[in-house]
Every structure is written in C-alpha cells, then in structure tokens.
Write a structure and sequence with these properties.
The structure is a single chain. The protein is an all-alpha fold and about 200 residues long. It is built from 9 helices and no strands. Helix 6 packs across helix 8 and helix 8 packs antiparallel against helix 9. About 25% of the residues are buried.
C-alpha cells in the first residue's frame, strides 16, 4: 500500500501512552484533556509521560501519527484482491454509515484536534501529513483497480482528493451539527460518484 510518510516504529512504552491518550480523549475530549488524566488512564505518574513528550501538544501530535499508522495497518490487513470492495471498505472506516458511540466520540475528538490546526502550525503540519497519507491510500487502491481493469483509466489523484474532501466535510458536519442524515446522504452521493467515475459500464 502506498503512503507518503515513512513507517514509524513505536516502543511498547509509547504504544501504552498512545492507548491511554485515546481512552482519555474519548472520556474527556480535547478541551478537558490533561497529562494528569492521561497518566490516570496509564496508571503511571506524569513523569512517565514527560519522559517521552515535553508537552501535551507534543503528545497529541504523536497520537495523530500513531492513529494514522494504525489505520493504515488495518487497511492493509483488511483489504484484499477486489479494488472496488477495498475502496468501499476504506470509505466505511473513515465515514461509517451507522457509527457506534465510540466512533462518534472519536470523530468528535478528531474534529476538535483538526480545529487546532487553524492557528497551530504543528497541528497543521500533522493533519497535512495525515490527509496526504489517506489520499495516497485511496489513490493506491484506484491505481490498482485501473491496472487490473476493474476501473476506467482515470486521474487517480483527482478521485482521491474528491473522496477525501467529501469524507472530511461529512465528518465535520456530523461532529458539529445535528444534521445526522447529512453524512448518510454524503455516502450515497459518494457511492454514485465512484460508480460514475470509476466503474466500467457496458455500452
């Protein structure tokens, strides 16, 4: 699977901190997150966290990279030999039609973190990398479909950017408004776009 970022190697201690950060974010959200609350989830002292990360923002930037790595790992292990099914799987992972409570909380957390990128250059750089990696994942699936004859010969970069922009917009709307049906409508529209742009239709 193609990515625009080198693979990151996480130590056991770092993985434990990332998992504790994930639990703390789901419990408290970005606004009320603190190193103390992460340490409580980790069941260790704050010093154990500060040994690896100087500030909360440093930790959160690392968390975003960790989350991107884990997403790519899941996509790599859960996709198969059908590019069309693989593309649908990635879209469902990023924008589930019927998200459970944890998925809703996680999307709200990610939207909250992304909002910091408006004024925080470090967060902006990290979300730029995340979007580039996601676009590369989608582009790789489309390119494979073109090579195998499943998809029409089309600009895969343009398709990837359209798919990603639709997902990001729908995710933001779901997390910040009560228009819950809008995300489902976006998924239907996205499926129609993929069918029209990618699939080979008999004359």
């Amino acid at each position: 699977m193609a990515t625009d970022s080198p693979e990151t190697h996480w130590s056991t201690a770092e993985e434990e901190i990332m998992e504790a950060t994930y639990r703390a974010l789901l419990e408290h959200g970005y606004a009320d997150l603190s190193i103390s609350r992460i340490a409580d989830e980790l069941e260790k002292s704050k010093a154990a966290i500060y040994y690896h990360y100087d500030t909360k923002d440093d930790l959160l930037v690392a968390f975003l990279a960790f989350a991107a790595d884990r997403f790519e790992e899941r996509v790599h292990t859960e996709t198969g030999d059908d590019p069309a099914a693989d593309l649908e799987h990635v879209v469902e992972k990023l924008l589930p039609l019927q998200p459970d409570e944890e998925q809703r909380q996680l999307q709200a957390v990610l939207v909250g973190l992304r909002s910091q990128a408006v004024t925080n250059e470090t967060f902006r750089e990290q979300f730029t990398q995340i979007d580039e990696r996601l676009a590369a994942t989608i582009r790789g699936i489309v390119d494979r479909g073109i090579d195998e004859g499943t998809f029409r010969d089309i600009d895969s970069s343009r398709v990837a950017e359209h798919v990603l922009a639709t997902i990001n917009g729908a995710m933001y709307g779901r997390a910040t408004t009560e228009r819950q049906s809008a995300a489902a409508a976006a998924r239907v529209s996205l499926a129609s776009y993929v069918d029209a742009e990618l699939r080979r239709h008999r004359e």
